[in-house]
Write a structure and sequence with these properties.
It is an enzyme of class 1 (oxidoreductase). This is Mannitol 2-dehydrogenase. Helix 5 crosses helix 7, helix 12 crosses helix 21 and helix 20 crosses helix 21. The chain folds into two domains: about 280 residues, Rossmann fold; about 200 residues, N-(1-d-carboxylethyl)-l-norvaline Dehydrogenase, domain 2. It has 21 helices and 13 strands. About 45% of the residues lie in helices and about 10% in strands. A hairpin with a 2-residue loop joins strand 4 and strand 5. It is an alpha/beta fold. The strands form four sheets. Strands 6-3-2-7-8 form a five-stranded parallel β-sheet, with helices on both faces. A three-stranded mixed β-sheet has the order 5-4-11. A three-stranded mixed β-sheet has the order 9-12-13, with helices on one face.
């Protein structure tokens, strides 16, 4: 065909304008965006989820959505809930778009989007939590699940026991009908259910805690025992608290994520970006039934702890290996850390030599193979997972993710040099400045205490380890304490990269 007669593309043609996300616009979204094939009007609630952030929407809610796409689990829809005033902002955003969420999978090979619709309401957020209590008391609710962060379970970091002296716990003990916490609200609802004959519900933690179900049981039963011992006994005997392991890297949403959704044709006030990898391992202990999550990829097993230990120590612990030194060096994302010529080999050496030896294999995965898997996931440049997000609440994450490995290593005579260096980087970060002199904004519920101790530790490193409520007796364990003090002193004198270089030569 003559070139002059060939049809030419219209360079002035514009892409269709993005559509505001709602039930009414679902059918008009761009081709290629998967959307609910089920009738959302026919869904009925079976789950109340407290703490409705990005992770829940990209993970547990996604598994439920996949079941609904097969015409199943139509009576297990989710009611979202929160117990803090700031949750109201998310509620307003999601209600304005009919509780739909745009999930954007970020893979180095490209992006894809789908809209999920398994959530059908978001409960009003009020002081005293009356709407939440009433909803959980409704007989059709059979599961109450939570993502309230690792630090949200009122655990005494020194003992692992229940922190009965916390002001919020004292408030709920004195005001059981107007509780402040999610746990107080659950107890109040269970009291109503016991009285009405509606029966118990499953209490399901979806947070990154080893033995998260057992920890949730400890919190609920211990709080109930402060005001109503008979109710506490009924809860312990009748409710179930399955342990689970959850895994999917889900960055926070900012202007870039909202813009990406618009580029794909959707105006979503709270889209969620995520990696393509997901894992959910669950103990099959549900007192009032459950959706068939196993049909869409979840693993049910009696040995959740082995999966938990691998993930929490290697992935979550590995995040702390990277994030604290990343903040010190001004590296913006976890992918930036993995691209750094000193930080990546530091991460790999600590993982292979000091973390993996204390982790057992699980079906289909060895600790060394898991390191390779998470290294690829962390290095994905499409996942804009900030070091700041990962470093948040180190006061919960280090005792939960790093220090148990330190204890195991000391007990077995295994190396702790790299783990001590990890803790020294945390202390250096909490001083509040980067090596370029820029300020690190407060990033921990205990920031003032941590910063004061970190500043004192600049001259006297042991000041950091004297925080026994985080470190227990580790400050009196010479092999760890001496290594920590030596590393922190070196970091202040010669810098983070110099310390890593010495460790790598080791």
């Amino acid at each position: 065909m003559d070139e002059l007669t060939m049809a030419k593309p219209d360079d002035t043609a514009k892409a269709p304008a993005p559509l505001p996300l709602s039930t009414a616009t679902l059918s008009r979204l761009p081709e290629g965006i998967e959307r609910p094939r089920y009738d959302r009007k026919a869904l009925t609630p079976g789950i109340v989820h407290i703490g409705l952030g990005n992770f829940h929407r990209a993970h547990q809610a996604w598994y439920l959505h996949r079941l609904m796409q097969e015409g199943l689990a139509q009576d297990w829809a989710i009611l979202g809930a929160g117990v803090r005033p700031y949750d109201s902002q998310m509620r307003e955003k999601l209600l304005a778009q009919d509780c739909l969420t745009t999930l954007i999978a970020l893979d180095p090979a490209g992006s894809s989007a789908e809209v999920t619709g398994g959530m059908i309401g978001y409960l009003p957020i009020e002081e005293g939590n009356a709407p939440l209590i009433a909803a959980m008391a409704y007989p059709a609710i059979r599961i109450v699940s939570l993502t309230v962060t690792e630090g949200g379970y009122f655990i005494d970091p020194a003992t692992g026991g229940f922190a009965a002296d916390h002001p919020d716990i004292r408030h709920d003990a004195e005001n059981p009908t107007r509780p402040r916490t999610a746990f107080g609200a659950m107890i109040a609802a269970l009291k109503l259910r016991r009285g009405s004959g509606a029966g118990p519900f499953t209490c399901q933690s979806c947070d990154n805690l080893q033995g998260n179900g057992e920890i949730l049981r400890q919190t609920i039963v211990s709080l109930a025992r402060l005001t109503d011992p008979d109710l506490a006994e009924w809860i312990e005997a009748n409710c179930s608290f399955p342990n689970s392991m959850v895994d999917c890297i889900v960055p926070a949403t900012g202007p870039g994520e909202i813009a990406l959704a618009r580029e794909m044709g959707v105006i979503d006030a709270a889209p969620v970006t995520h990696e393509t990898y997901r894992q959910w391992v669950i103990e099959d202990d549900f007192c009032a039934g459950r959706p068939d999550w196993g049909r869409v990829g979840a693993t049910f097993t009696e040995d959740v702890h082995a999966y938990e230990k691998m993930k929490i120590r290697q992935l979550n612990g590995g995040h702390q290996v990277l994030a604290n030194v990343g903040e010190i060096l001004g590296l913006q994302t976890i992918a930036d850390c993995m691209a750094h010529t000193a930080v990546q080999p530091f991460f790999l050496k600590v993982e292979r030599e000091e973390i993996a030896p204390h982790v057992a294999p699980v079906p289909g995965m060895t600790p060394d193979a898991y390191i390779d898997l998470i290294a690829r996931r962390f290095a994905n440049p499409r996942i804009v997972d900030t070091t700041r997000r990962v470093a948040f609440d180190g006061a919960s994450r280090h005792p939960g993710f790093i220090l148990p490995t330190v204890q195991d290593a000391l007990a077995s005579g295994a190396p702790v040099e790299g783990l001590a260096l990890v803790e020294a980087f945390w202390a250096r970060m909490c001083e509040g400045t980067r090596e370029d002199g820029s300020r690190i904004a407060a990033n921990d519920p205990h920031w003032d205490e941590l910063t004061a101790c970190a500043q004192a530790a600049r001259e006297r490193p042991m000041a950091w380890l004297e925080m026994r409520h985080f470190y227990g007796d580790l400050g009196s364990r010479p092999r760890f304490a001496e290594a920590f003090c030596r590393w922190l002193d070196l970091i202040w004198k010669e810098g983070a990269e110099a310390a890593i270089a010495i460790y790598l030569k080791g």
